[in-house]
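Input record, target 12 of the design panel.
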């Protein structure tokens, strides 16, 4: 959760610098997502999972909730994978979060274009990719820092 919140605060700071005026809570919890046409990639992935696995069509009113559940759920599941790998290392380091964050960033550009939720990575400009990569690096560092702190409070590895 620490990594996801760090990433979202980073993205929100960019949003504000670009003259966004929505309060953080409304921005964070997707208050502007009122239907599937306005729903970003996390919501669309969740929608496809529900449609495919449960053969149930979600109404527009569920787009916002689906976006939030998928955004936080994907981030938390990534953090669990990071924790399992880092815990197996002799000495986990916060800096490994940079590798983790970059991996999560790259993974999204591998899986989302075939789903037609992102364009191929070559169709994005460097500024867009850089901003997205920076946010994922913040996520990775936040996740790794939280894990390292938790591990040190437990007295290290067991």
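The sequence produced for target 12 reads:
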């Amino acid at each position: 959760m620490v990594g996801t919140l760090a990433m979202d605060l980073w993205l929100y700071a960019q949003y504000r610098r670009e003259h966004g005026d929505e309060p953080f809570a409304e921005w964070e919890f997707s208050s502007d997502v009122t239907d599937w046409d306005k729903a970003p990639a996390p919501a669309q992935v969740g929608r496809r999972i529900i449609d495919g696995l449960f053969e149930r069509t979600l109404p527009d009113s569920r787009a916002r909730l689906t976006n939030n559940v998928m955004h936080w759920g994907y981030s938390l599941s990534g953090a669990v994978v990071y924790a399992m790998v880092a815990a197996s290392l002799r000495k986990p380091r916060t800096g490994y979060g940079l590798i983790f964050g970059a991996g999560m960033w790259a993974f999204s550009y591998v899986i989302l274009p075939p789903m037609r939720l992102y364009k191929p990575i070559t169709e994005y400009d460097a500024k867009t990719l850089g901003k997205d990569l920076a946010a994922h690096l913040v996520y990775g560092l936040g996740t790794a820092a939280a894990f390292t702190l938790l591990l040190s409070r437990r007295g290290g590895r067991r």
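The radius of gyration is 17 Å.
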